[in-house]
Amino acid sequence: MKRSLSLSLITLVATGSALLGGCTETSSSPASAPSVVPEAAANQAAEAPRANAPRPQLAKTATMQLAVQDVPTAVRSAQAIVNREQGDILQQTESSGDSPSATLQARIPADRLETAIAAFRALGRVDTVNVQAEDVARQLTDLQARLTNLERTERALQSILDRATKVEDVLKVTERLSSTREQIEQLKAEQLNLRTRVAYSTITLQFQSQILGETALPAFAPELETAWRQSSQSVLLLIRSLLVAGVWIVAYSPLFLLLIGGGYGLLRYQQRSTTTSSDRRDQPPQQPQA
């Protein structure tokens, strides 16, 4: 009996110690939690501006200048590329003569612009390529906010119009409601235009006939083209500097002539004076007559 009581007491003491240890660990664990919470809060605060920032909405425009052997053939090939990339021809002009040329403006889906530019490069020698992007996300956000406010105003005016009984009040509210709806339509048109610019990129192609006998630099050595252009510019700058120096020389030529003439006259005068004095010394003295 005593042995069973002692065993029971030992079991109770062990159980109590285990419970106390668990409570101690539980009470000590929250103390370490606050050290992790501020770090997570700081990360969330840093990521909040990025999450609230509007996603970029890029409206891209591109221009290309190409020199081709046959302008009409290149234009037809460009039209085929636009159709293949699910685009539309917006404008096309062609001129014939000794130096035929053409301009083609097309609208292409934004995600296919790079593919289309790569295809256009194969039509001839590419002289210039320019791609520009404009972020219109802020404009779209502002338009949406203005639309929301105007639509709220429209609903309020419609509610007032439904309750109006006087003819004068009906006319005033109707006029205000018509003006509000007109502003809403204008903003929706601007919003649609911006979204279309984001979804479709505009590219302008300028074709010029390549001059016969014109030698283009190899495509595998673009640094030669850069060196040629820089050297040509240096020669032009040298010629211009020489011309400017010649103009200055011509402008100051009268002064130079006066200085040269004065110096030459002074030199001649000194030479004559020296010759006269030497002649006088060389002459024998004259004897007096008897």
Automatic annotation (TrEMBL):
Q: DUF4349 domain: from which residue to which, for each copy? A: 57-267
Q: Where is the composition biased (Low complexity)?
A: 24-56
Q: Where is this region: Disordered?
A: 23-56
Q: Which UniProt keywords apply?
A: Coiled coil, Membrane, Signal, Transmembrane, Transmembrane helix
Record-linked PROSITE patterns: PROKAR_LIPOPROTEIN
Q: Where are the transmembrane segments?
A: 242-267
Which residues are in coiled coils? 133-197
Signal sequence, start to end: 1-20
- What Pfam families would the database entry show? DUF4349
* Cross-referenced InterPro entries: DUF4349
The protein's name in its UniProt record = DUF4349 domain-containing protein
Q: Which organism is it from?
A: Synechococcus elongatus (strain ATCC 33912 / PCC 7942 / FACHB-805)
